[in-house]
Structure formats: structure tokens, C-alpha cells
Write a structure and sequence with these properties.
About 40% of the residues lie in helices and about 25% in strands. It contains 13 helices and 18 strands. The protein is α/β, with parallel strands linked by helices. The chain has helices spanning about 15-25, 40-55, 60-80, 85-100, 110-120, 120-135, 160-175, 205-215, 250-255, 270, 325-340, 360-370, 395-400, and strands at about 1-5, 30-35, 140, 180-185, 190, 195-200, 220-225, 230, 245, 245-250, 280, 290-295, 305-315, 345-350, 350-360, 375-390, 405-410, 415-420. It is globular. Helix 2 runs antiparallel to helix 3 and helix 3 (about 60-80) packs antiparallel against helix 4. The structure holds aspartic acid and magnesium ion. Aspartic acid (ASP) binds near residues 8, 121 and 188.
């Protein structure tokens, strides 16, 4: 069996949903577990609904929700004939679930309401796609993943209960494949043992798909995206970026660590644990090779470039020229932990400690204030952090030509450079 994941962009219009079905036609006869995200920007739209609701603006929340409803009903109308009424009935059940909540006054935490409302996006999209596939003769079984994925109640960042979920997957999903080739369900959402809906963190559908692949011992996971493959740099920043057709898990974890927007970082572990290959394929041109990610060593990788802009450097020095010792550094790291700050780069010298952070003014101000109780703090903004893995002299020189390098860190694999703003 294979697991497929289709992201929001692959179902954001009638044409794209038809395209998804065309792709599935090519896999007739294969057993597929399919995870689908909310359509296009639905998750963002639903976030606005919750914000309005929580600010006590019930009417506005209902109006915003109405827009989401109409979009989905319209898409269903364009796609469906014989299966429209059954789809409409299912959608209306989900609408009622959310509206019933919006009509109340908020009495619990924001994150709780967020999950109850935002989870509907994936329920809508999967319901429409499932009905459409059935109408086209691509027989499939729709599942509410909230009956399968059990999580804790850490709303908006829920953690999967692996034992419960694993046995549920084996007892409820595996037998479905005796009758159907395709089981279609949601990513990103789950439920607590009290049947409250939860979400796993934005962009979490990749992770859901990888958990399914692990629990089903799938032969592979394919993530269908709107890019031709994993690229060696972000093509919006570097138009000369090239596709990488083969990678291993470790490399992808490194790339994600340095800030490449490849795949949700939590996706890799469940696959790596069972050596399940991950394919990244282009839903617009399925004949393209895409990328295969596996457990074996991969030689001759091209330079992988990650450019993070809007970086801020904090330089913290002792006031009396005494050495920066472990108690200073320990203290700073406990501040990072308390404030949920993850430095992108750190460096120690005799009398100073340097860290580079994403520009989050609220957090940086708090950190600078706290650190200035025991160190002198200097803040420099508008920097960029360039990371090159598998660097060559040529690429290095090309990317740094005419740039002012403030800091440089280097290992045999990776070089990182902090660059000043260009005047
Ligand atoms: N729909 C969710 C989001 O946009 C989850 C996902 O697409 O992975 O974040
Ligand atoms: Mg998405």
C-alpha cells in the first residue's frame, strides 16, 4: 500500500480537483491511503473566523464563516451531479458543528476554539473530493480522521497518542482495504479522548501522512506539491535553482534545520524509523521525475543554499572585560528556553556572546532587556543569514561577491555567513 498526500494548492479549484482525479486514474488497482489538506487558503480564512469570534464579534465571525461555506458549496455544485445532495448533507453537518459553537460566548481558551473551527477546513475538502472521485468511478471510502488519530489536549499543537492511534489504524483502516482500493481522509487534525477536535500545528498534513505511512507499513509516501521537485535553493530568491532528484533523510533534516522550506520537519522521523521512501512529486506535471528521499547515502549533492532574511544580531559583552563564562551562557540559554527563542546562529568569544535571531521585535526586546541586567547588549537589525551546504569555492565566491560578511562559521559540510544590509 502507498500513502499519498495532496496539499491545499492541489485542491484549490474545480480544475485542480479534476487534475487530482486524473492523477489517481493512473494508479487504478493500487491500494492508496490518501490524506488531503484544506482547500487553498481555507485554513487562513477559518483562523479569521476564530479571531472574530474570540473578540466577541459574533456577527462578523458568522459572516466570515458564511464565505467559507459558500465557496465550498459552489465548488461542490460545479463538480457534482449525482452525488451533490449527499455531499451537501455531509457539508451541512460540519457547518452546523462550527456554527453551533460560534453562536455561544467564548468561555474557554482561544486555542480550544481555534481547533474546533479550523479543523473543519479539511473535513470540507475531503468530503468534496471523496464524493467527486466516487462520482467519477474512482471508488473510495471517506473517513473522519478524528475517529482514528487520538491526541492529547494541547490544542493547536496536539501530540499523537501512538499506541492508541496505531491500534486504531490497524483495526479500523486495514480491513477497509479488503473492500476498497482507496481510503481518503484528513491530515492536520485529530481528537482527544473526550472527542474534542485538535490540530497538530500549521502545515501538519505532511506529518499526518507520514504517521499513517509508518503505522500502515506503507511501501512509500508521496507528497504531491506545486513544485517540480525539492530544489537546491528557493527559486523565488535564486532563479537559477535546480532540482535535486535524490536525497536522504539526514540531508532533508539538515536543510529544514537551516530554514529551507522543504517538508514539515516532523515528517521525516516516522518514515526514517521504518525506512519508508518519500517521493516529492509535482501534481501539475506528474510525469516529471520529482525527488526521492530515502535512508541510503547520497553522493555528489549540489550546493544547497538557504537564505534567511530579516535577521537580528544581539551582541552581548561583559561590562568589566571579564571572560564570558558558563554561568553567563547558561543564563542566556535559560532565557532562550523561557521565551521560546531558537537562535539561528551563536558564537562565543572571550568577552562576548553573539546570537542571530529571526526578527521578532517583541521577543527580541524582552530578551535584550533581560540580558542587559548582566551584560552590555548591542542590537543590529536587517541582516541576512546565508547557509551553504556542500559549498564549493565558486558558489561561495559568487554568493558573497560585494557583500559585507560580519560573521562566518564553517564545518567540512556547511558554511554560514552573516551578511550586512546592502547600502
Ligand atoms: N490546512 C493546514 C494548513 O494550511 C494543514 C496543512 O495544509 O498541512 O496549515
Ligand atoms: Mg498546506
Amino acid at each position: 500500500m502507498k500513502v499519498f498526500k495532496f496539499g491545499g494548492a492541489s485542491v484549490n479549484s474545480v480544475e485542480r480537483i479534476k487534475n487530482l482525479a486524473d492523477i489517481l486514474e493512473k494508479f487504478r488497482g493500487e491500494k492508496l491511503l490518501i490524506v488531503i489538506s484544506a482547500m487553498g487558503k481555507t485554513t487562513n480564512a477559518l483562523e479569521k473566523v476564530v479571531n472574530a469570534f474570540y473578540e466577541g464579534k459574533k456577527e462578523e465571525a458568522l459572516q466570515l464563516f458564511e464565505l467559507v461555506k459558500q465557496q465550498h458549496l459552489t465548488t461542490a455544485k460545479y463538480l457534482l451531479v449525482t452525488h451533490y445532495l449527499s455531499c451537501e448533507t455531509q457539508l451541512k453537518d460540519f457547518f452546523t458543528e462550527a456554527e453551533w459553537l460560534i453562536h455561544d460566548k467564548p468561555v474557554r481558551d482561544f486555542d480550544y476554539y481555534y481547533d474546533q473551527v479550523v479543523c473543519t477546513g479539511e473535513l470540507f475538502s475531503t468530503s468534496i473530493v471523496s464524493h467527486y472521485l466516487n462520482e467519477r468511478g474512482i471508488d473510495n471510502k471517506w473517513l473522519d480522521v478524528r475517529d482514528i488519530f487520538r491526541t492529547d489536549d494541547d490544542f493547536r499543537d496536539a501530540n499523537i497518542d501512538w499506541d492508541y492511534t496505531g491500534s486504531k489504524v490497524r483495526s479500523s483502516i486495514v480491513p477497509l482495504f479488503d473492500e476498497k482500493d482507496i481510503v481518503l481522509t484528513q491530515g492536520f487534525i485529530g481528537a482527544t479522548d473526550e472527542n474534542e477536535s485538535t490540530t497538530l500545528g500549521r502545515e501538519g498534513s505532511d506529518y499526518s501522512a507520514s504517521v499513517f505511512a509508518n503505522m500502515l507499513d506503507a511501501e512509500s509516501l508521496t507528497i504531491w506539491k506545486d513544485v517540480e521537485a525539492v530544489m537546491n535553493a528557493d527559486p523565488r530568491q535564486f532563479p537559477e535553482a535546480i532540482p535535486i532528484h535524490e536525497l536522504n533523510y539526514d540531508e532533508v533534516i539538515e536543510m529544514a534545520y537551516y530554514g529551507a522550506q522543504v517538508i514539515h520537519p516532523k515528517t521525516i522521523k516516522p518514515l526514517q524509523n521504518k525506512s519508508i521512501p518519500l517521493y516529492v512529486k509535482c501534481f501539475l506535471k506528474p510525469s516529471l521525475q520529482g525527488t526521492e528521499i530515502h535512508n541510503k547515502p547520497v553522493r555528489h549533492l549540489p550546493p544547497v543554499i538557504v537564505l534567511k532574511e530579516k535577521q537580528t544580531m544581539l551582541q552581548m559583552s561583559s561590562r568589566d572585560f571579564s571572560f564570558i563564562g558558563e554561568h553567563h551562557v547558561g543564563h542566556l540559554y535559560s532565557l532562550f528556553e523561557k521565551m521560546h527563542i531558537k537562535p539561528n546562529l551563536t558564537q562565543n568569544t572571550a568577552i562576548s556572546f553573539l546570537c542571530v535571531l529571526d526578527d521578532r521585535p517583541d521577543k527580541i526586546e524582552k530578551l535584550a532587556m533581560a540580558a542587559s541586567e548582566f551584560l552590555d547588549v548591542q542590537v543590529t537589525r536587517e541582516l541576512s543569514l546565508l547557509t551553504i551546504r556542500h559549498y564549493t569555492k565558486e558558489v561561495f565566491e559568487n554568493l558573497t561577491k560585494g557583500k559585507k560578511v560580519l560573521l562566518r562559521q564553517q564545518t567540512p559540510d556547511t558554511i554560514q555567513l552573516l551578511l550586512a544590509a546592502q547600502d
